[in-house]
Amino acid sequence: MEPLDLWKPNVPRIYDYFLGGKDNFAHDREIMEEVRRYVPDAPLLARENRAFLRRAVRLLAASGVRQFIDVGSGMPVEGDTHQNTHEIAQHIDPDSRVAYVDIDPVVASHGRALLGKSPGVAVVQGDVRRPEDLLADPELREVIDFDEPVAVIMLLLLHFIEDEEDPAGIVARLRASMAPGSHLVVSHSTSEFDTDGRVQKAADVYRKANSPLTLRDRAGILRLFDGFDLLEPGLTTLSLWRPEPAPGPGWHQRPDTGVPPGAEHQWIYAGVGRRP
Q1: DSSP helix/strand/coil, 218
Q2: Does the N terminus or the C terminus of the chain have fewer Cβ atoms within 10 A?
Q3: For 141-151, how does the pLDDT look when each residue is reduced to its tens digit (9 = 90+)?
Q4: CA angle, 100 as apex, 17 and 74 as ends, to 5°?
Q5: The dihedral sign for the CA sequence 238, 208, 17, 135
Q6: SS3 category, 242
Q7: Entry pTM
């Protein structure tokens, strides 16, 4: 399990800062600013990622999925702008159940304090690199029944699993426990459009943090969906995965992120797969 190290830049706290949160330290913010020197749109992409989460969870909840495991969930977010997974799902069906999982002990503790008393919610400290232990966790099992369909959410997580740790194999072991009709929700940084090396330089900055970041091409990310049927529009960039329509004439920004239409920011892929 991940040891507590408040003095090393930390991925969940860096992401929290990207989203405008307050659960981060000066050395986390320094990493974020260094990343932003190479890719100025990084905070925007963090918001795009949250918007993708909202759209995907709403879609799956509306289609009848009532169980969600949010792996690598990061710091819980507060306020009306960034809803947490259980809030999105339970808005569709109050009986929806959600397990939040993160390797970081501070994230797990913070999550229990803010979310742990919500009905149908569990917050678990666990390591996705040990999926059998995660799946057997008694707190997770209190809210998740693997005999029924479940959506496993892994947003901006698997690029922190290095090739030698076999991310596709980890997903395959999770898939083996998932009932037919289950879903996999993934977003992942890519090298596909990195024509000038800026994205790789930004990824290299994470070597100063507690987890290095591995960029993968489209084929490498598609391998994560082996055994799943991709929902339309397939594997695409964040902003192009089922964007919400403008509410009416004169609307000049997408309602879920405030991003101008046509801004594609193509260095994160996103997709949702269904286990047949």
Answers
A1: helix
A2: C
A3: 999 999 999 99
A4: 15
A5: positive
A6: coil
A7: 0.88
Sign of the torsion angle spanned by Cα atoms 260, 48, 201, 164: negative
Q: What is the CA 47 to chain-centroid distance, rounded?
A: 11
Three-class SS of residue 69? strand
**Paired tokens of 110:** 């913070």
Residues 6+ apart with CB under 8 A from 108: 102, 123, 124, 125
Secondary structure class of 170 (helix, strand, coil): helix
Place of tokens 């991940």: 2
Spatial neighbors of 196 by CB under 8 A, at least 6 apart, are none
- Tell me: pLDDT of 196 over 50: yes
Tell me if 86 sits within 8 A of 275, measured CB to CB: no
In this predicted model, what pLDDT tens digit does every residue of 27-78 receive, in sequence order? 767 777 888 888 888 888 888 999 999 999 999 999 999 999 999 998 787 6
Dihedral over alpha carbons 265, 62, 121, 111 (to 10 degrees): 20
Residues in the chain: 276
Terminal-to-terminal C-alpha distance of the chain:
33
Amino acid at 101: V
Mean pLDDT on 114-127: 88
Containing 34, the helix (H) or strand (E) segment is helix 26-38
